[in-house]
Predict the structure.
Amino acid sequence: MIADNPWLDAALRLVAVVLLITVAALILIWAERKLVGRLQMRLGPMRVGPYGTLQSVADAVKLLTKEDLRPVTADRWVFELAPFVVFVPAFLTLVSLPFTADLFVRNLELGLFYIVAVSSLSIVGIVMAGWGSDNKYALLGAMRAAAQLISYEIPLVLAILAVAMVAGTLDLGQIVNQQGRVPYVVWQPLGFLLFIIATLAELYRNPFDIPVADSEIVGGPFVEYSGIRWSMFFFAEYVNLFVLSVLGSLVFLGGWNWFLGNGAGWGLQVVWILVKTTGFLVLFMWLRASLPRLRIDQLMSFCWQVLLPFAFLQIIINGLVLVYEWPDWTLTVFSGSAALVAIWATYVGSRRAAIALPWALAPARRSGP
Amino acid sequence: MTVEEGVFYVIAALTVIGALGVVLARNVVHAALFLILSLLAVAGVFLLLSAEFLALVQILIYGGAVTILVLFALMLTRVRDMPQAVDGPQRPFAAMAAASLMGVFILAAVGTKWPGETEKITAIPLRDFGEALFRTWALPFEVASLVLIVALVGSIVLARVEEGE
């Protein structure tokens, strides 16, 4: 408790977390441009401030003062409300996200489920933006986004559910404490792998940036937006990136505890959660710079034919181990070998698809004489 | 009036506005979007009744469901070409049916003798909820999911046939 009055306490915590997130998002935008720049043998932003550190601030000022355009044929209310429907759920997830043992707004009993449920609402906003813009590219982007986000939500939820099964709780604070000396990534390598892939898809980042693919549909649902409304979409994207990275480090990497131990002090807790979250963030940014974009049919078949069966496999493994009370290390063995099989199957499948698809797609060859 | 009551009236108003929007909106996509407002407000009612799990399930399921509904609306109707076409001459009949259904619901809710104490809200721990769902009522639960699977497979089969022809 920071203050005595529960309402005041909640308000203060909320303000603190929102400020923290705003600063974090500005830093993330700069860091991503810098990191991707270096990976592509560029310098990234260099002009504003030392090493371009103030670039995000300058961009924010530019976006806020830019004209807020609305196409004449756009559906007025749907177009104007869409950014809020994306923006608000992104911030609502922060309510139950604990950063350290003490730093959170409210630690809910169903915290993990709450974050997944609330963040799923932003799909509606994206579809609203795509339809309301009355633009073909925007509508195509919204269709792609709806298909992708709804499909990948399932493996994401199942991967998290697998952890909740072992932890026996959905309370994020308790999940962190349950991990004790060994984080869940050791027990659930398959779940961890599924989580990373599904998260990438939920954030529509490379190689899953199909809904906003610049070279195909010029920014997808956000093509007609400018100024402050566009910056709200952009901002929500980075808030989601940050939230899912923190969530990943809480659920799979032991959160604010040491890697192979627990009982870190307050200062060390902040350091540990930041280190683990940064690990996720750097991984996501690195993947963005290194991987090409998939096609939508590859994306969908990968979700339904690879991710989903393996997600169920992880849950079945957990169920067997929990019911028959096999020792803990069997979890690692089963889940780890399943993860290896998943990687192998994906590799073989993608090789085969790469050879087979040009033939399947060419109608002239298929019709024959 | 307590804070809870105030919150309840706001949520109830949102539910009703959303529901009216669904039936009165001329544009089918607007109707679908009003539906999510109404459904989210119902999630708020669940929260007020301390049924957090139900509220979150409501949000998780219907967020995706309404998106799909918008897609169907876009694919199966021509919203831009004829904005008035979604409305038919059955409006008064629909209003009458809805009003009488509401009457039946209200009568049933008021007339039923509810077991236990209804004045007080008792929160049920998630563990008990899970036990009830997967132990006591496991068979009905499984049957319900089976029915859904059958519907799903059936719709895929029907859609496939159409595509092939």
User: Anything to note?
Assistant: The radius of gyration of chain B is 20 Å. The longest helix of chain B spans residues 138-164. Chain B touches chain A through 22 residues (CB under 8 Å). Chain B has one domain: 1-80+127-165.
